[in-house]
Amino acid sequence: MTIASSMKELIQDIASSRQDRIKAISNMRKDAETLSAEARGLIKNFQSSRGQARVQLRRNLTRAASLRRSDVNTLRRNARQAVSTAHSFRREEGGRLRRELIRTCANHRADMEELLNGFQNIVTDFNQSRQTAGTELRKDLTEGMAGIRAVVGGMRDTLHKARAGIREEIRQASEAWHSLANTPGANRTPTQPEGPKETAVETPEVPDLETRLLTAVGERPEGSTLAEIAASLSVAPIVLGRAAKKLIDKGKIRREDRTYFPASND
Description:
By secondary structure, the chain is mainly alpha-helical. It has helices spanning 2-181, 194-219, 226-233, 237-250, and strands at residues 224-225, 253-256, 259-262. It has 2 domains: 60-150; 151-183 and 194-262, Arc Repressor Mutant, subunit A. A hairpin with a 2-residue loop joins strand 2 and strand 3 (259-262). It is rod-shaped, with a radius of gyration of 75 Å.
């Protein structure tokens, strides 16, 4: 009994589920038809909106193309105007630059001419100053040579006078020697003829020469040569040599090179 009732319930469930499925399938068909109708409506609406969009897009494209052509034409006009303005500016600037270049070149040419004139004046002044300096130098050289010749002539005259004085002194000494040799006392020492001469000549004269030489040297504290002192004393320099040596040995005068000074310059 239990199995039969179970089978019966199962069959009833299967039958009820079949009816439910049929009903669900019927509902699904209705939904599919509704969806199909809606899809067809959507497709129709899409086609209609697509046509409208195509028309609108064409209109927009036509309008954009027209605007683009207008913009291009405007840009072309602006470009032509800019090029024309640039050409005009270039011509004006070129003319202005050429005028400035011509003016600058003229100023530079004037400056160069002024510099050249100044340089020529400097060269002329230099040549004139060189000629003047050369003339003055030649004049000074001529005067210097004349002075040198005069000094040399004076030295020659002094030398000639000194030589004449020496010859005179030698002659006087020779005469004194001969006069002493002819005296009776000279025969007592025939083997030494020079002894009587030195005794007879130097004994009376050397002290006087030493005094005169010392006085002359003292009068010239800046120094003087033996030739200058001999000229001032009107004697030969050779005569003052022995007296000068004795005064140096006594420390009364001093000698530096060929110049004689007092022993003390105070």
